[in-house]
Amino acid sequence: MIPKTFEEKFSQILGKEYSEFSRLFNFKLKKSIRINTIKTEKKEILRRLGERNWKLEQIPWFEDGFWVSGSDVLENLAKTLEYFLGYYYIQEAASMIPPLVLNPSENDKVLDMCAAPGSKTTQMAQMMNNEGLIVAIDDNLKRLKALRNNIQRMGIKNTIVILMDARKFWRKGYKFNKILLDAPCSGSGTFVTTESIFKTWSPWLVRRMSNLQKELLISAWKCLEEDGILVYSTCSLDPEENEEVIDFAIRKLNAKVEKVKLKGVKVRKGLTSYNDRNYDEEVKKCIRIWPQDNLTEGFFICKLKK
User: Fold this and answer.
1) pLDDT at 236 over 90
2) Is 235 annotated in the active site?
3) Is 262 helix (H, G, I), strand (E, B) or coil?
4) Hey, how many other C-beta atoms are within 10 angstroms of the C-beta on 295?
5) What are the tens digits of pLDDT across the range 142-169?
6) I need a labelling partner for 164 at 20 to 30 A (CA). Which of 22, 41, 89, 145 fits?
7) pTM over 0.85
8) CA-closest candidate to residue 242, choices 166, 183, 306
9) Which domains are delineated in the chain?
10) Are strands 31-35 and 88-90 parallel, antiparallel or unpaired?
11) Model pLDDT, residue 28
12) What is the three-class DSSP state of 153?
């Protein structure tokens, strides 16, 4: 059951396009994977999965990402020998974009503030060729165990895992030149993969998450070196969790919004207003990934420079 407040809100934001958006309420996305080049070669996994009569289609915005389809994919994607050996990671296609925007390299010190269960952590380690340093934080022990298991399964050696509330991490005094804050959120953009999201989404939850996100961003900013880059992302479509948070960063933290350049994916500008609230014009440089544009989960991504 879709909450009436959800329909009203996004109908207001999208206008005539709402019908295209709402048709995805009962749509099933293709499964997608990221081939782990730390442990294997891409062509070898394509060959092995092809032998299962699975069709693999490259995701346009990431060379190691593939949509996978086949009659038994849903039942067996997480049961293959290749999966257990860490040769690929099951990851939603839009979820691969925030690490691409941060673009970590072998020489970077990266803080992953809300890391579990590790899809973006392991992707960044792969992009860094298992070099440099990643500090991955989460405050949920159960999720942290999943993060640790994924790191081990994927053969990652450059990552330190810490159980801690990321809002307090700045007190440790460590500095990083790149930070990923893929913040906890209401998850409104995941309705195409998680039908149960409609049971938990509410205006109250959105407001609570917005407050939490601002607290996390303050901590992240204190951990960022001068001239460092911070990528803020959510799988939410709600302006309170996205543009409002970036507007806060501009006004209170003096953050500078950088333009995001991506190939192969349709993106839209950030919203400069919602209801009776106007946001700083710089939020237009943020990107929105709407589910109907790429047949993916919805995402919001912003690149900030200190």
Assistant:
1) yes
2) yes
3) coil
4) 14
5) 999 999 999 999 999 999 999 999 999 9
6) 89
7) yes
8) 183
9) 14-27+94-305 (3.40.50.150), 30-91 (3.30.70.1170)
10) antiparallel
11) 85
12) helix
Q: Are 159 and 147 in contact (CB under 8 A)?
A: no
**How many angstroms separate the Cα of 185 from the Cα of each of 3, 79, 245?**
17, 29, 12
Interacting residues of 34 by C-beta distance below 8 A, sequence separation 6+: 62, 64, 65, 66, 88, 89, 91, 96, 119, 123, 126
Average pLDDT value over all residues in the chain: 96
C-alpha 114/C-alpha 163 separation (Å) is 10
Closest CA to 230 of 63, 128, 148, 114: 114
**What number of other Cβ atoms are within 10 A of residue 38's Cβ?**
18
Q: Give the count of beta carbons closer than 10 Å to the beta carbon of residue 186.
A: 26
In the numeric block, the tokens 């149960």 are attached to 196
* Residue 132 DSSP one-character state: S
| DSSP designation for 275 | T
Tokens 């690149």 belong to residue? 303
In the chain, which residue ranges form alpha helices assigned H by DSSP?
Answer: 4-14, 18-22, 42-50, 73-76, 81-84, 97-102, 119-127, 141-153, 197-200, 203-223, 243-253, 291-294
Helix (H) or strand (E) holding 191: none
Backbone angles phi, psi at 114, to 5 degrees: -135, 75
pLDDT at residue 240, rounded to an integer: 98
The 10s digit of each residue's pLDDT in 247-257 is 999 999 999 99
Cα gap 229→63, rounded to integer Å: 23
Q: Which amino acid is at 216?
A: L
Q: Which residue matches tokens 């070669």?
A: 41
The one catalytic residue in 114, 223, 235, 286 is 235
